[in-house]
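Q: Fold this one first, please.
A: Sequence and structure below.
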Amino acid sequence: MSEREVLNMESVDFVREARLLLSEINLRVKAGERWALIGPNGAGKSTILSLCGAVKHPTRGTVTVLGHRLGRVDIRRLRESIGHVNPRHPLRSALTARQVIWTGATGTTELMPRWTPNAATRERTEELIEALGLASLEHATWPTMSQGERGRVLIARALLPDPALLLLDEPSTGLDVAAREQFLSTVDELHRSHPELATILVTHDLEELPTTTTHAMLVKHGRVHASGPAIEVLTTERVSSCFEHPIEIEHRAGRWSARALSGR
């Protein structure tokens, strides 16, 4: 695994409407690491992810993404090097899978008027369609795609500019069990085919973690509860403390499972 630093958050606080949402957040991600941000609803996971994606700026502390410190860099250009997969992607038009992927070249939700993809973008798009098994969606449009199909299309869209950092914000939202497993297999294969790609996945469900997860951060009340190698962080004791409820954690064949314990 490379020692190249992709992301560094140091002593980060985030305040909104006089409320302290994040306090003393420290996170360092190197190339090839696959992080999971886990915690209860409202813990601050998505806010941390928005800082990682240069969508928000810290109130205090520093955030350095791909060697550029937020506040001292052209944010629009920086975002072009960050892939972002959000299952709540607000697309309204009946775009095809190929057209949705093309929007990754412009960083927009809709296709830009009078914009056409160049030859390199078209070639890269076809490579991603093949790699992510999207050829069967040749004639499907966004409104007719299942959540699982949309998820794979959004991964392809995020990978179009060949980013060094990929952010996945609760990517299994709305998926049934079969679609979730197919999606996680796609993420695992992505990690194997792009060994230098760093990923950060937000979830509150340990069963949604890919087998290729290397590191984890537990977030509680806007603070880091535990952080480090996933196998050391995702333990019964630490997860139970984070969620303030007794939860038994098992790690088997590369996957985590969680079971709430009663009567304690």
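Q: Good. Now the second chain.
A: Here it is, same layout.
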Amino acid sequence: MKIVITAGSLKENEDGVTRVLYRQVEYLRQHNVDFLAISPKTDANAKINNQFSVSYIPFPLYTNYKVSLPKKEKIKRIIASYEPDIVYINSPCSLGYVSIKICKELGIPAVATYHTHFPSYLRYYRLSIFEKLVWKYVRYFYNHCDAVIVPSTTVLEELKYYGIDNLVYLPHGVDTNLFNPNKNNIDFRNTLVPPDKKIVLFVGRIVKEKNFDVLEDAIRILSSKRDDFVLVVAGDGPYLRHYQKRIPNSLFLGKLDPERLSNLYASSDIFAFPSVTESFGNVILEAMASGLPPVVANSFGASELIKHNHDGLLAEPNDSFSLAENIDYLLSNDDSRRRLGYNAYQKSLNYSWDSILSIFYNILTQITSLEDKELIEKGNFEIDKV
């Protein structure tokens, strides 16, 4: 099989989307799949040898992300000469839009993954007035794909509600060799906080749509009641300095390499994640695999991973008092914190990358034939929730 991949970035380990992509690539390479990857941001050191870079401009709201400026006819010639069996689209950006057009013209099937729930981002940038327009584009974009892989059933149902077809439920997995309780590193922990302090951890991009304002208020509420914890933040983003100055009892580490990040997860006490815009929540699953009990907002894909008071706690969405209350409970109850952490670890073992990626591989191989496209319409590729 030969696949063309189009993506917003090919920089390995840049974010959750690229980590999932490279996990998929690694699995497909083991099955003798050849790749041509097209992106505005390539990586010479990455594990995809055949990369093609397109022009771009920085995204105004987050300059680390690139807005591609694809030249359709040039990309069409590249794809046509490569003669792929399928095109795999990782982002509904301008490059993805052009790729869909090219697929229709060349008669090549296109499969996309719905990684990012962009319509839910708009209110964080005072752009809610454009929500109908964004949904119109999202509907057009994904309905022109042969299949759309969605990692949570809650987001899948919303996409159905807005008229998007050909949806396939397939969750992401977690690397339990990298993320597991055995990565606990006391020496590393002691460099971060005093022995009498607990670590409340956040991992992710430091952007508005992660609900950092809610996290800030929750930490202020907690800090007014107790001083036996430190909020540790791992990640980068345009608002790092803004929140670094504003949040009390906090330590911002910036972006960490995967091994050091796994140490941090396993060496922390509570994982706090207030985002209500997640299509899945990769970092939540990584925390669970590390034996870290999560406190997350009861919204979309994030809450789908958690059974309240069994393997984590669900706070009310957009509610700093509820988030603070749930974190406070775990800070004060060591037995409950250990019980939830153990159960979280046990649940994470169900999210095997091997079983998930075997289904992903079958989707790609089967959709290349016309008769198998009927399976998509009938939902035969859907799997039960783990």
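Q: Anything worth noting on the second one?
A: The CA atoms of residues 191 and 288 lie 23 Å apart.
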